Amino acid sequence: MPLIGRLLKTTTALSYRKNAKKTLGYKHQLDVLKYLLSRAKSTKFGIHHHFQDILERNEALSLFQKEVPIVDYDEFYDKWLKYSVLGDKDNTWRGRIKYYALSSGTTGSPSKRIPITMEMIRSFQRTSIRQLSILHGLDLPQTFFNTKVLAVGGSTKLVYKETHVEGDLSGILKKHTSFLVSPITKPGPRISSISDWNKKLDTMVEKAPKWDVGIIAGIPSWCLLLMERIVEYYKVDSIHDIWPNLHVYVHGGVFMDPYLSRLNEISKHKINLLDTYLASEGYFGYQNEESRKGMKLLMNNGIFFEFIPFTADYFDESGKVKTNVQAYTISQVKKGVDYAIIISTNAGLWRYLVGDLVRFTDTEEHEVVITGRIRQFLSLCGEHLSLDNINTGLLQTGNKFNVQFSEYTIYADIENQCHSWFLGVGDEIQNPREVIEYLDQKLFELNDDYRSARKYSLKNPKIKILKPEVFYNYMESIGKIGSQNKMPRVLNSEQSKMWLDYISAI
After folding, report:
1. How far apart, in Å, are the Cα atoms of 184 and each of 136, 153, 175, 198, 288?
2. What is the pLDDT of residues 372-384, one digit of tens each?
3. Residue 475: alpha-carbon gap to chain centroid
4. Quick one: fold of 387-505?
């Protein structure tokens, strides 16, 4: 076994044993908060919010929550972050922030600029090593540890501005990749820097037989498209005819179940699925064991977490958090409740509302599943239909009719007072009306508010069956193809207009 392979196997074994010994919790979170406050106490943000005074008091947490408001991106950018982007020093974090990750977003609007500090980069690096520890428990063959990791991400090409450097998060992290890791990562600097997704895809297909890939990582829709393209191009039965040592797929950000049938169709043997919770704002957690459903939040990785129940007591009908609500710490959360996640980070984000909804599957081990987005829910007539409801209903409907809806989107049709569904499926569906009636019934069972709304005010849903490639082509038409871009599952009014214009023109 080559040196890097032996090093990887030894490192994962040591990390696995270390992680198995301890569960980090509330105490470590308080330590993280005090560290963040201490590092930022002399910044403009820290002075404005009296960080030094907070640190000197016993009730630091409650004072912090009282002194610092909960904000979304637009609020934080307008009041603080825009000055950092312009080059302001010691604004929300010590020094001048050099890097900004451009978030992909789901509309045609300009990308958000998320601050990335060296402290945050080191946090990403530590977590990447930690996550590899799970490999030790997967009973992988010796040959696996000689393979490559293929990251299907955005362009690593960075844009150098007058005051900072910006681009895809993968590009920023690639710039700081350890020399020990670089030899085992693909597709390599030249291909990674290609900004044209179709060109990058074609190049990866061409190079595929030259790479011995053991791990593939990225969003399911694009990773599967790549693997399907490889199988088709080389006229083989499975992806394992090209990559016989492919044993691990690291995914994240998307509900995986609808893609399983496609993955199984192109696989000759089992591929271990590992979920990860990675965003431009930070590396929040990862699946610690394949047998466990949830992802373990990282309690000592430069991020302080808070949680707000996603209910009418805390949020208005538009998904905006109400003023003066009480956020909960990791020690106060309960299983089975949907929470909006709030972070304060070592990149100078403070009580920042990420936009994700999570549900704890284990409060002792701090394991969560992502259940949706704050703004991605439907409430035309008070039905409060969540993304988790939608995904579960579609999964049950797909099982009933033996189809997989790998792509879909939905919007609230205000004019007709109904939900309008667009489902992507490769197979022919003889009676779409039966599908939508069954789905409608399943949503009755999953959501009491939906059942009530359908009884009194919400009209019968509409459905349109499309080929999955329609969704890909649409994303390309709005300049959101490939890498980290995801089709929005629930469309707002602006997004629905763009989508309907596109659909009507094809």
Report:
1. 18, 16, 15, 24, 23
2. 888 777 888 878 8
3. 18
4. GMP Synthetase; Chain A, domain 3 (3.30.300)
